[in-house]
Amino acid sequence: MNLRSLVWNELRERPWSVVSSSIAILLGVAALVAIRHVTVHSEQEVSRQLTSLGANILILPRDASLQNYYAADRNGLTLPEEHVFEVLMAGLPGVEKVTPKLSMPANLGGLDVTLTGILPQSEFTAQAAWQTAAMFTPKKHEGCKKASHVSSGADNTPESLNTSRSIDNLEKDQVILGADVADRSAFSTGDTVDILGGKFTVLGTLSRTGTVDDSRVFAHLHTVQELAKTGEVVSAIEVIGCCEDAAGDLVPELSKLLPHAKVVTVSQVVQTQVGVNRLMSGTSWFVLGILVVVGGASLASAIAANVRERRREIGTLMAIGATPGFVRRLFLMKALILGLVAGTVGCLIGVLTAVLVGPQWAGVAVTPMPGLALLAVGAATLVAVIAAYWPAWKASKLDPCLCFQEV
Amino acid sequence: MIRLENVNRTYVRHGQTVTALQCPELRIEAGEYVAVVGPSGSGKTTLLSLLGGMLSPTSGRIWLDDTSIYEQSVTARSAIRRERMGFVFQTFNLIPYLTALQNVQVPLGLNGVTPDMQVERATAMLSRFGLSDRLNHKPSELSVGQQQRVALARTLVNDPQIILADEPTGNLDPASREVVLNAFDACHIEGRTIVMVTHDLAAATRADRRLTLQDGKITEANQKTAAA
């Protein structure tokens, strides 16, 4: 019989008391772990997706929101299409590709989709024949060592929309379906579809990206403008730079060139989005911090009640030679075990919840994060021990003469 | 040898100072069997608490051989109780969530005895009190007499020199009372010092000496031999 077995036997004797005294910590840890897992994976997924866009620059209407790079063109605001050619004509160093987009809501076989008009790279080549050839000879950015990404024929598949955000050829009566649209509409390559009153042939379908691009239907920009009767406007212009440095240098140049537009880099959008995530994350820490404090207070109260009901036992232990330190450790070890068990069980519940519901909550696959799990268990244990310190100290100061009294 | 030297213990209750014990001089020799009798509130338990190093005197000194108990630290007094004293309580004070065997192991564990040795010594002590078939029973599963025998086993398992007993027969039937008093007789024969607080005058006659407490003062100190 030693300290550990005394604590263990007492805990085994009152299992429901153990559950009730540690339930708040357990739930707090479960919520903390689940939310943090989903938030962190969501942040990583956003960063991964946006970073994969490389040195992109977005030119948007001045009042457009920056919350989501992929959906930045779906805000109903437009820019004149002539901005596309102004950019090309300016011959700015580091520009590799320019891809305008016009997005609007449409219906495809009863399914609500976003119809996005894009301009294939072949259009620029054709216009260059009667305008100026200079713009299609991308000028290397000083210090940029990366090979040019300019169309070489390798981008002539629908999938290039996912990989390089552009396509070389797209006829005016062709469409490309995003992954969700293809799944839900059951249309496939070669089918004829009807959108905004126009008839199109499906050129292909895209693989899943996990972004709003999955719910888009891509068609030729000028066809979309005609069908939607918008005139020569676009929702956004993507400018693909040769490298990150070039993208950074291009922003002021483009802002000067297009003073009525908003020019941002991918990294700025990422920062905005990560900032929003951080705010949510910080808020969740704050709220969950309160939960942990409530858990600690609940445990402290349970340990204090335990000390009160065991006064005779404490007096007896002291009478037979237990030191005040032993009595203090008796309650601290109990709190440590409760914190450890509640933290571990809460952590398991949190991880399981995040893994199971993460894909539905945030559209991201969640994998367990051992570091976060250990941190949560450690924090729960620490909170429990700190919460129990005062009642444990009071127990160690009890009068041993209690062993003689009816209490 | 235990010696009290000008010991006073007072309490302040509702603004008034109450003297719980006043003892100019008391010696209890090693191996002596002393019964303390007196009405409720006369200071018997206060005396026992003072002797056990659990209640500091307001003034005076209490010596255990050459050691002034209350000049030691709290931890050192715990060590004195652990190594040299054993307590028997009227309500047994067994730990309810431990078995009989585990209850008897507790003092051994506090003294740093290894788990295997704890089991061996606790089992032997419980067998001495006829409880070898009740080792794994919890106090609630034992009769009152069996509980007091477990408590006695717990008291004696560390082989204490001094036994301090507070009304050890107060809650017992005659047969169990006899078991306890016989155990004290045996301890006395083994040379242990026994101080037994009791209301049971018949039990008190088995002691070498009887101290009578009245209003916190020791008014009588009858030698058994003298009484006889």
Tell me what the structure shows.
The complex is a heterodimer of chains A (407) and B (228). Chain A has 407 residues and is α+β, with helices and mostly antiparallel strands. Chain A has two domains: 3-48 and 274-404, no CATH class; 63-259, no CATH class. Chain A has twelve helices and eleven strands. Chain A has a nine-stranded mixed sheet. In chain A, strands 2-9 form a two-stranded antiparallel sheet. In chain A, strand 6 and strand 7 form a beta hairpin. In chain A, helix 2 (15-51) packs antiparallel against helix 9. Chain A is elongated, with a radius of gyration of 32 Å. The model of chain B has no long low-confidence stretch (mean pLDDT 90). In chain B, a hairpin with a 2-residue loop joins strand 4 (59-64) and strand 5. Chain A binds chain B through residues 1-2, 5-6, 9-10, 12-14, 312-313, 315-326, 399-401, 403-404, 406, and chain B through 45, 48-49, 52, 54-55, 74-75, 78-79, 81-83, 86-87, 89, 91, 93, 95-98, 102, 105-111, 115, 118, 154, 166.
Features:
heterodimer; A: 407 residues; alpha+beta; 2 domains; nine-stranded mixed beta sheet; two-stranded antiparallel ribbon; 11 strands; elongated; B: 228 residues; alpha/beta; Rossmann fold; six-stranded mixed beta sheet; four-stranded antiparallel beta sheet; 8 helices; 29% strand; globular
- Separate helix tally of chain B: 8
* Whole-number mean pLDDT of chain A: 81
Portion in beta strands of chain A: 15-25%
Q: What's the total count of β strands of chain B?
A: 10
**Quaternary state of the chains:** heterodimer
Percent helix of chain B: 25-40%
- Secondary-structure element order of chain B, as H and E? EEEHEEHEHHHEHEHEEH
Morphology of chain B: globular
Chain pair sharing the greatest interface: A-B, 29 and 34 residues
Tell me roughly what share of residues is in helical segments of chain A.
Answer: 40-55%
Strand order of the largest sheet of chain A: 6-7-5-8-4-3-10-1-11
Please report the first level of CATH classification, the CATH class of chain B: Alpha Beta
Structural class of chain A: alpha+beta
Largest sheet of chain B: 6 strands, mixed
CA(first)-CA(last) distance of chain B: 24 Å
Count the helices of chain A. How many? 12
